[in-house]
Write a structure and sequence with these properties.
The structure is a homodimer of 503-residue chains. The first copy, chain A, is α+β, with helices and mostly antiparallel strands and 503 residues long. Chain A contains 17 helices and 20 strands. The first copy, chain A, has one domain.
Amino acid sequence: MSETSSASSPFPPNDGKSEGIDAQDGNSIIPISLNEEISPNLLQKMVHNALVWCSLHGLVVGDKNNQRSGKVPGVGIVHAPIALLPMSFSQSHFRQACELAPIFNELVDRVSLDGNFLQDSLSRTKKVDAFTSRLLDIHSKMLETNKKEEIRLGLHRSDYMLDAQSQDILQIELNTISCSFPGLSCLVSELHRHLLSHYGGDLKLDSTRVPENMASTRYADALAKAWKEYNNARAVIMIVVQTEERNMYDQHWLCSILKEKYPFYLCAKTLAEIATEGKLQPDGTLLINDQLVAVIYFRAGYTPNDYPSELEWSARLLMEQSTAIKCPSISYHLAGTKKIQQELAKPNVLERFLDDNDDVMKIRKCFAGLWSLDDSNIMKDVMESPELFVLKPQREGGGNNIYGDDVKQTLLKLQKEGSEELAAYILMQRIFPTESPAFLVQGGILHEEHVIAELGIYGAYLRNKEKVIVNEQCGYLTRTKVSSSNEGGVVAGFAVLDSVYLT
Amino acid sequence: MSETSSASSPFPPNDGKSEGIDAQDGNSIIPISLNEEISPNLLQKMVHNALVWCSLHGLVVGDKNNQRSGKVPGVGIVHAPIALLPMSFSQSHFRQACELAPIFNELVDRVSLDGNFLQDSLSRTKKVDAFTSRLLDIHSKMLETNKKEEIRLGLHRSDYMLDAQSQDILQIELNTISCSFPGLSCLVSELHRHLLSHYGGDLKLDSTRVPENMASTRYADALAKAWKEYNNARAVIMIVVQTEERNMYDQHWLCSILKEKYPFYLCAKTLAEIATEGKLQPDGTLLINDQLVAVIYFRAGYTPNDYPSELEWSARLLMEQSTAIKCPSISYHLAGTKKIQQELAKPNVLERFLDDNDDVMKIRKCFAGLWSLDDSNIMKDVMESPELFVLKPQREGGGNNIYGDDVKQTLLKLQKEGSEELAAYILMQRIFPTESPAFLVQGGILHEEHVIAELGIYGAYLRNKEKVIVNEQCGYLTRTKVSSSNEGGVVAGFAVLDSVYLT
């Protein structure tokens, strides 16, 4: 989350994992707009239709103005913040991003198996980032006891931006824990197809150009297949949740699809509840209130805020020690950190994990420039042209990025504090994404804005000891952000949900 | 609406047409309960599941705590107040109520054709009730100009209670304008089937015993068929709406089904908008903003509050004068008043309108005792046993009924004021419905209460000059009310939505 948000923006700051955009911003080419020449009358009708559709079809979130909206379902509901129309992407860029999903799935799996690589790469981060340090401690314990995860389930989302100058799709980050919006993203695609099927004629837009989005169904299928691999008919799928969650309906959609399609039982527990109700059996199985857990799906545990006391850490350790299939395991979680992203971008590192040269090339093509701060060559460049870089803290969540002249000032400050502090950050090439006009609807109000977009591609991966069972691209989500809020180099983590229009 | 509500009740007073129960209450037999012996744990799971289901599937209303919730869709949404389980009715009672629907449809149509009967029956009411008087004025104008409604569309809901002592289904009232909940009632049935399919085993309840509910689809079909009868491809269906409507999602469901199934255009207008935007053409057709109107569906105009100025009355007259198909016409509207209900209950009146003797008998069987206050025989009985009667004001909306000793006091007061004032009321046999325990969920909170239930049966009727096109029962809705709130004879108009479980 951003620590500073633009007061003049009509959009409230984001307050949940991955809801914010880990934005890199700039002013650049204005592309062909979907949104030109729409009459105010048509616009008004479309907004009304969209608001009604959201309300009737569960494209909703908890209203931050209602205190109970994150605690109890059914109260304080408001439509999700949405773009009225899908964001245009070229077929080739969209296909490229989709094709990367199974390769990244494979890459995460391979990296997760190399415990020393994870420990070594994160050794300096460990000293300055308490959260990563705790995760690494759990990881170390697993290495010490030679704990193996034979069935491995990954539900990832890789986020990209289109660099306007190079016209390359560049990866912003790879989320390997608690990817948000698999449920709502499908609804946004459906909403846009609905709107275009009614108003597409007037807009000269074709509803079939909004790609099919199966994120929630495919995620549910992958969870169900993992449960089947665990092979115990009495075992349950446990969802690790936050004590308050305004994005609860996104999760409820996934659970609802699971419940309708599959007979097994689901339970939702907070880390604190798991600590008190969980019990590790001598055979390594995990019981929650005497119920055997087959699969643990994390929708919490990705931020230090989720671990207010040792109780929560003990729950995380307990789960990791168990034979339950963790989505993600501690290794998968660590494999998704920015520092690992940066390590993988170093020459000859991808080759250690991927056998196929084509795959290596495809992945490398989507990497933006990534450096650690002990790289003296790049530091010189940064001091000369800080506007071309982004300084990113290690920790997950996005939004704390540093831009513009602040990059230089921060680096000077960190250098004074010593090299340890530098290890808490990585440096990334600043992507200047294409900016486009958009109609955003939030709190029932329409805003015409210039936005930048981040394309997220959902991936699912499941394997057992013998073979890969699932390795696929599942769906997509575009999140847009008001680009003007980035003036002065401060990026506020706004999240407005959007889909894709293939051009 | 009730003028006094029980402060201790957890349920907010109803504030919309037909949302309240026009309740007649009492303590009587406790029937076989659906709700006994449910463990707190199971109950908690069911409530959570129900709240999630409502949120994802649009079983929602505007939250009265949110000022914008009645004006803008998508904001200030809360789950509809619901009973957790369906209300049990015997198959024979349910079938009986359903079979009455086409007969009442026919009856309303026949009564509507007898302008003198309507005028004569309501002549005394006219003098004391300004609202009915205005409706009658419009009706008179139509009679004077010999205005005919050749295509007639009725979307009615007849409400019943089960009298515990006689075990008879008795009619409370027949709504011929703006029947609420055709949209949400279907969702409540679906919710209950969903809950019983998941938890029915534990509860020993069978989800297939919740009858199919097609109210919204059938209402949409009837509106579409009326549009077709009007026979102008460029004409629209206009919905007359209130300026604020917290029950908007019920209406949106109906409109949404119409839009998906049929190609024509819908518009929603307030009475004030119709007054300024509407124009009667020389050929009698109605234009709204130069758009021809085929069908007018009223979801407003049933209460004096909807006519704050002459503007709104001019809109009502304009519509009535037009060739557009009104649902309802002024005659249909008047045919649904309580005074007409009471007139129809008089000996040999039904026979004037219905040809089939069986139909007459079926209708008569569901009539409670109904009297006007100039009936001196019954007045004597009332003074002796006021607890056996309900005093009902003429005006639509329900909830202002007078019970218990207040009946006597009010009658004495009215008698002093003279016979004119007496004409503003009708007297009805007090029905003592069966009371049963129920789990009610409102504002995300579960309440265990003893409730009484009112069964509403939706009916649709459409005919043209030659023939009847639609005459059917469409669906149903049970509304429950906390019976304890009726202590002291004051009935608050609470509405909790429920479905039916056939026993």
